[in-house]
């Protein structure tokens, strides 16, 4: 890295003092492997001193978790939220956060910050939610509202990070994955909304206005059904959970809710069985069709971002192999037609907690890789120097 | 940037010696604006000492250009190529390059390197062409073949950079644009092939295998026509130039060539007139339909990458407003439906030379921002330090 030994020492000392790193006992080594001088002291990530709060704000409920530095869940709490008023939603979330912080394990630790994942496009610099069709919110200063709601409580002074829920889920896979994590990494969130988070060159791809990865609003059929965003024929109007439930239940039973938990509960139990056990042929066919659409989305994510890894998450994944089997099959079919190796596809490491744990990972991400133009310029200069 | 004055001085001196920068006369300033001490000497990019070679390898012809450091074209040469054998194609390209280097203006200058843009996915580290459906090439060690073909001539020792043609065109807009260039920047190349180059955080988004931005191979209709890549219903099978010509001429006249120049020549002259002057209703409708598909692609690029700017280029753009008007209209329609501001869309700065000039810009790009894992790590460390 071109840094001197003493600079490294100083930097490590700071990180040890702050609770990020810990010195561990050196493994005894055979004599011939030792260099001259004092043997170096191994450093590891400290799993025991810091905590990170992550909030997943959904359409009808919120989940709050605390994790340690390597993604171990220390505490977890879920509850219903009403999304009619953003300010009241934030007050409810703040209560949940303050309740979580009562946990004795968290009181022992230094809490570094709070990440909030939301189903919409966010300006990560200002914490402004630009557009969340499924929440029905537009231009909401979410970070400021949450800051106000947290005032006076134990979390009042915490750094707050607001980001899209698929984006933070991608950060969860990236920051808490076994290094080296394959890149580009795409997290495809399948629920009422359909969106992707993309990590490339160690950073989120957020785009000019926080809309990057909104793969659910790529148009597949200009004459298709109306989407939550106002456009016609978006991918979400075909593979979003509401569309999927309607396809399974039949066209006459349009779902009246957008809450993913209620949508899943409206499905017959046989749907959640494995592919072979789906007895109703019409239901099996509907799931297979939807799975093929998801496979088509995977193909399109591949063509757009050429990821090394696609992680599938979100409530729709609870439908299991009768849906995801056909999706993988369709992707394999496209790869075979082109004579190419498809990207690796696997399910989210943190299951239904992917968004909340990801929001905690976002705290680590932005603390370690702050949003700063100066950093950007410095790295360009190093490149110029090296050339 | 955290660099000392003397470091900056040393770095500038090196760049002046190499021909990248030149010292210019300081503008006389009013007394009160002067600081104490020696007034600083302004530095500018030197337009007069260096040259960069760019090659655009097409399906039936190649174009070679030389530019200066700010994208001024110093010399240009085009000629037919036969793509039956990659090695022979490279020999032909090498002859064209050597002929160009005879130009007296270039003999006066220091030639820094050669960039080659090709219609396919490339591993930029090895210069291996992975897959180019329209050339019919797969797994071709293009940089090595070109190195062999250049051996013994005046370009034998030049650094060579091989990259996808839409990618280099994006670099042309980025490196030769008025700074600050808006990001993410997407170049959408419309020709026999359809592909996008994406610049984000000052770098190309290439993906795990060089396939990122292959928006022409996003599938729009699983039951659609067969594409050059082997899949069905790709965007290219709807808006690629061959599909477009067939739509205009009618289904019975499948084009026998993939050469974009010949495809364009097979169209009636009225097609190239402005929208109002297209007399044949069927032709006007076919162009409008194709334009709407391109608008749908623009919408999908927007949703995937959230660019600040989309640049349209490639031979299909010669059809002008009767095609691009409906495309922009459709994008505006999608934006209005969602109540959002669409990204800026404009045509390529270098017109039909976009790929060749972009290939020259790629030389500058990779010289100034070399591909290096060390650079990556150093920049992460700075970020960690700043945190």
Q: What do you see in this structure?
A:
The structure is a homodimer of 387-residue chains. In chain A, 37% of the residues lie in helices and 20% in strands. The longest helix of chain A has 25 residues, at 281-305. Chain A folds into two domains: 50-169 and 355-366, ATPase, nucleotide binding domain (Nucleotidyltransferase, domain 5, 2-Layer Sandwich); 180-348, ATPase, nucleotide binding domain (Nucleotidyltransferase, domain 5, 2-Layer Sandwich). Chain A has helices spanning 5-18, 86-100, 104-108, 142-150, 165-175, 236-239, 241-249, 260-265, 281-305, 321-338, 354-368, 373-386; strands at residues 21-23, 43-45, 50-57, 61-67, 73-80, 110-118, 121-123, 128-132, 137-140, 160-164, 185-190, 194-200, 203-204, 309-313, 344-347. Chain A is of the alpha/beta class and 387 residues long. Mean pLDDT of chain A is 90; it is low at 373-387. In chain A, α2 (86-100) crosses α4 (142-150) and α9 crosses α10. In chain A, the strands form four sheets. A five-stranded mixed beta sheet of chain A has the order 5-4-3-6-10. Chain A is globular, with a radius of gyration of 23 Å. In chain A, a hairpin with a 2-residue loop joins β12 (194-200) and β13 (203-204). Chain A has twelve helices and 15 strands. The two termini of chain A are 15 Å apart. The interface between A and B is large, with 75 and 75 residues.
């Amino acid at each position: 890295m071109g840094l001197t030994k003493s600079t490294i020492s100083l930097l490590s000392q700071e990180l040890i003092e702050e609770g990020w790193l810990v010195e561990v006992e050196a493994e005894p080594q055979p004599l011939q492997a030792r260099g001259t001088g004092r043997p170096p002291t191994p450093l590891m990530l400290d799993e025991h001193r810091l905590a990170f709060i992550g909030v997943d704000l959904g359409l009808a409920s919120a989940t709050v978790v605390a994790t340690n530095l390597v993604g171990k869940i220390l505490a977890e709490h879920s509850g219903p939220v009403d999304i009619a008023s953003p300010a009241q939603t934030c007050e409810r979330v703040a209560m949940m956060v303050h309740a979580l912080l009562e946990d004795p394990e968290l009181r022992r630790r230094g809490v570094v910050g709070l990440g909030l994942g939301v189903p919409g496009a966010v300006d990560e610099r200002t914490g402004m939610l630009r557009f969340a069709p499924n929440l029905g919110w537009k231009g909401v200063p979410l970070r400021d509202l949450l800051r106000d709601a947290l005032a006076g409580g134990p979390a009042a002074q915490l750094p707050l990070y607001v980001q899209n829920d698929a984006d933070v889920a991608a950060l969860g896979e990236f920051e808490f994955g076994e290094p080296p994590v394959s890149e580009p990494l795409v997290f495809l969130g399948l629920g009422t909304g359909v969106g992707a988070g993309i990590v490339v060159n160690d950073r989120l791809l957020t785009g000019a206005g926080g809309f990057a990865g909104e793969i659910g609003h790529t148009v597949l059929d200009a004459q298709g059904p109306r989407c939550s965003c106002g456009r016609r024929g978006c991918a979400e109007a075909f593979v979003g959970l509401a569309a999927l439930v309607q396809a399974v239940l039949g066209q006459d039973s349009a779902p009246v809710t957008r809450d993913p938990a209620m949508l899943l509960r409206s499905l017959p139990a046989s749907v959640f069985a494995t592919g072979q056990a789906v007895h109703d042929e019409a239901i099996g066919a509907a799931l297979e069709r939807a799975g093929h659409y998801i496979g088509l989305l995977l193909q399109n994510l591949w063509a757009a971002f050429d990821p090394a890894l696609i992680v599938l998450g979100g409530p729709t994944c609870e439908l299991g192999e009768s849906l995801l089997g056909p999706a993988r099959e369709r992707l394999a079919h496209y790869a075979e037609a082109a004579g190419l190796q498809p990207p690796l596809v696997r399910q989210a490491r943190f299951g239904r907690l992917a968004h909340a744990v990801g929001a905690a990972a976002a705290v680590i991400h932005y603390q370690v890789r702050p949003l700063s133009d100066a950093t950007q310029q410095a790295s360009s200069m190093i490149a110029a120097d090296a050339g």
